[in-house]
TrEMBL record, chain A:
PANTHER family: ALIPHATIC SULFONATES IMPORT ATP-BINDING PROTEIN SSUB, TAURINE IMPORT ATP-BINDING PROTEIN-RELATED. Gene3D superfamilies: P-loop containing nucleotide triphosphate hydrolases. Residues 4-235 form the ABC transporter domain. SMART domains: AAA. Keywords: ATP-binding, Nucleotide-binding, Transport. The keyword Lyase does not apply. This is ABC transporter ATP-binding protein. InterPro entries: AAA+_ATPase, ABC_transporter-like_ATP-bd, ABC_transporter-like_CS, ABC_transporter_ATP-bind, P-loop_NTPase. GO terms for molecular function: ATP binding; ATP hydrolysis activity. The keyword Nucleotide-binding applies.
TrEMBL record, chain B:
It comes from the Bacteria. The chain crosses the membrane at residues 63-84, 96-115, 121-140, 174-196, 216-238. One of its GO terms (biological process) is alkanesulfonate transmembrane transport. This is ABC transporter permease. Keywords: Cell membrane, Membrane, Transmembrane, Transmembrane helix, Transport. Belongs to the binding-protein-dependent transport system permease family. It holds the Pfam family BPD_transp_1.
Length: 257, 254
């Protein structure tokens, strides 16, 4: 049995008199340590699926188990990283990273030690005493990553975490989270609408389509180690994803003999 | 430097127009004092210690009334903002009570609490209560949902949720209510002290009027204005510190 098992999951939302089907009979199995990208246009249910996996939302039908146990509510074992970072502005960077450790009743000294370890990992050791508002968007998201790692979770859910960042910062963070996935052996479920991002990061790309939200195909990414965004293999997979979204221009040349 | 020039200019403007009004009006000096008379009156009640004692009494009543009101209103606002099913019932009551001037309750206040410090305390309490209560409730309901999600994710339950997340998250918004309430409460201090008490700046005004001492009346009025300004500046300072700490850019009109 897979680590994460999504079986025939549907989710309906009631909006006034209208019923909206955000997820329609979704099936997916995810192994421990996998990096999964949920890719699709807005309204395809990728964020809904992530929210349900993280325990913030409930299924209308179907079952989801993680490690054999059904998902009921959010737990500190599976941490979510949000697009708008979710840092607490009144706490210093260091205290933000310690937040999750406080509920685990870890003594203050040890908390600080852990916070510094992960701030070091994301390259923000010098900013421990800053407040989030003093940092750039990319740095704030690094703090959020450090905060997630600090509680040593099994799964990290990421909901379009880099969507608000500029292109270069985004690529840097993609490389970092990719490296973190390899070095820390976390299972990562990553929601994005950016095709390149999915190809850079994922072990498998789950392509979703809207109305109703469904899984269209799953594309395995057989690239290993750090990925070169310009290598032929990378471009081949990227092409494949583009084709799935029917974004490749059809060849309409007419030939005459 | 610029502020000094502005302040000096304002003071000069007030003194000149005051003197002009006194001359042009031609009233009896016991009814409308000149600036110089007021300065002598000021010196007189500073010298015999009346003014300082009244300031002390008024500030004590004000701080006690304001602090207890604000603490209770924030606590209640936190709970009611969180459980808005209860608030739905209480909101109409609050909306009806809010626009009533606290002074209107005075006969009932005296009936229930008697005379002495209590009536002015209760009036200050009432004046500060509703602005803080309403801004707290609104702030709790407008809290950034991602903070609550983060708290839920990291297993932060009550009462830590309240102390670690909700209260700090809404504090910048409550600060505006606190500021507003401070001004309102100070205005009603005088009204509260005009009845049922024999001390404080409000009583000084009544006493000066009854003794036809317009110079002392004016002294009391100026003192109340200046103290109000000082209280307001101190809370503005506090607000700025909070905004800086929370990383909110300072508002240009502050």
């Amino acid at each position: 049995m897979s680590y994460i098992d999504i079986q025939d999951v549907s989710r309906n939302y009631q909006k006034k008199d209208q019923s909206f089907r955000a997820l329609d009979h979704v099936n997916l199995k995810i192994d421990r340590g996998e990096f999964i990208c949920l890719l699709g246009p807005s309204g395809c249910g990728k964020s809904t699926l992530l929210n349900i996996l993280a325990g913030f939302d409930k299924v209308s039908a179907g079952t989801i188990t993680i490690g054999g146990a059904p998902v009921e509510k959010p737990t500190v074992k599976n941490v979510t990283i949000f697009q708008n970072y979710g840092l607490l502005p009144w706490r210093t960077v260091e205290k933000n990273v310690e937040l999750g450790l406080e509920s685990l009743s870890i003594p203050a000294e040890k908390r600080q030690q852990i916070a510094h370890k992960y701030l070091d990992l994301v390259g923000l050791k010098d900013f421990a005493q800053s407040h989030p508002a003093e940092l750039s968007g990319g740095m704030q998201q690094r703090v959020a990553i450090a905060r997630a790692l600090a509680v040593d979770p099994e799964i990290i859910f990421m909901d379009e975490p880099f969507a608000a960042l500029d292109a270069l910062t985004r690529m840097n963070l993609q490389d970092e989270i990719s490296a973190i996935n390899r070095s820390q052996h976390k299972t990562i479920i990553f929601v994005t609408h950016d095709i390149d991002e999915a190809v850079v990061l994922a072990d498998r790309i789950v392509i979703m389509t809207p109305n109703p939200g469904r899984i269209k195909t799953i594309i395995p990414v057989d690239l290993h180690g750090p990925r070169d965004r310009t290598s032929p293999d990378f471009l081949r997979i990227r092409d494949h994803v583009f084709a799935e979204f029917s974004l490749k221009p059809e060849d309409k040349t007419e030939y005459y003999i | 430097m610029k502020t000094t020039i502005h302040l000096g200019g304002a003071l000069l403007l007030v003194l000149l127009s005051w003197q002009a009004i006194a001359w042009l009006g031609g009233w009896n000096e016991a009814l409308f004092p000149t600036p110089s008379q007021t300065v002598y009156g000021f010196a007189e009640i500073i010298a015999d210690g009346v003014l300082l004692k009244d300031i002390g009494t008024s500030l004590y009543r004000f701080l006690l009334g304001y602090t207890s009101s604000v603490l209770l209103a924030m606590a209640l606002g936190l709970v009611l903002g969180w459980y808005h099913n209860i608030w739905a019932f209480l909101n109409p009551i609050a909306q009806v009570l809010r626009p009533i001037s606290p002074v209107a309750w005075l006969p009932f206040i005296v009936l229930v609490f008697g005379i002495g410090d209590m009536p002015s305390l209760v009036i200050i309490f009432l004046a500060a209560f509703f602005p803080v209560l309403l801004s707290t409730v609104a702030a709790v309901r407008g809290i950034e949902p991602v903070y609550l999600k983060v708290a839920q994710n990291f297993g932060i339950g009550q009462p830590q949720l309240l102390t670690k997340i909700i209260f700090p998250a809404i504090f910048p918004r409550i600060a505006t209510g606190l500021h507003l309430a401070l001004g309102t409460a100070w205005v009603f201090l005088v009204a509260g002290e005009m009845v049922g008490t024999q001390s404080g700046l409000g009583f000084l005004i009544i006493d000066a009027r009854n003794n036809l001492r317009a110079d002392l009346l004016m002294t009391a009025i100026i003192t109340i204005g200046v103290l109000g300004l000082l209280l307001d500046s101190s809370i503005t300072l506090l607000e700025k510190r909070i905004y800086r700490r929370w990383g909110i850019p300072e508002r240009s009109n502050a």
